Amino acid sequence: MLDDLRLLTSFDADSRDDLTMVLCGHPQLEANLRLAINEALAQRIVLRVRLRSLHQDEVDAYLRFRLELAGRTAKLFLPEASEAIARAARGIPRLVDRLAEHCLLVALRSKRTEIDNEVVTEAIDEVDP
User: Fold this and answer.
1) For domain 56-127, which architecture applies?
2) By percentage, how much of the chain surpasses pLDDT 90?
3) Is the Cα dihedral 50, 70, 67, 115 positive or negative?
4) Delimiting residues of CATH 1.10.8.60 domain(s) in the chain
C-alpha cells in the first residue's frame, strides 16, 4: 500500500503538488517508512508529528476533563486510581479511555461512588486477563 501512495505522490515527476495526504498511524508506520523500499515516499513527507504519552498529572486532568464533558463535576477517580490508570495505560490516551471505561463498569457493578486502586486493579484484570 505504501508503494501505491508513492506512485500517487510521484505524479507528473514532482513538478506539481496536486496531492496532499495525512498519514496517521502507530509507531510501526514510521518504522515501515524507514525501510529502503519506502525511501522515495519517506523523502516526500514534509512534516512529521509524534505524539508523546501523557504524564500522570496529564492523565488525571484528562480524566477530569472527560467527566466534565459528560456532566460530572464531582471528583470520581481518586489520585491513586488515576496514577494506576496512567501507569497501566502507559499514558496512551486510547488505553486510558478503555481502562477508565472498565473502571466505571466495575464501580457501577459494585455500587461504588468513587474509583480507587482496587477498582482499577479489577478493571485491569478484565481488560488484560
Assistant:
1) Orthogonal Bundle (1.10)
2) 60
3) negative
4) 56-127
Q: What cell numbers appear for 37 in the block?
A: 523500499
Between CA 1 and CA 34 the distance in angstroms is 15
Cell reading at 77: 477517580
What digits encode the pLDDT tens for the residues 75-95? Answer: 999 999 999 999 999 999 999
Quote the CA–CA distance of 127 and 129 in Å, as a whole number: 6
Alpha-carbon separation of residue 13 from 16, 37, 57 (angstroms):
8, 19, 49
Q: What one-character DSSP code corresponds to residue 11? A: G
Residue type, 37: I
Q: Based on the number of CB atoms within 10 Å of its own CB, is 102 exposed (0-12), middle (13-18) or buried (19 or more)? A: buried
Contacts of 77 (CB under 8 A, 6+ apart): 60, 63, 64, 67, 85, 100, 103, 114, 115
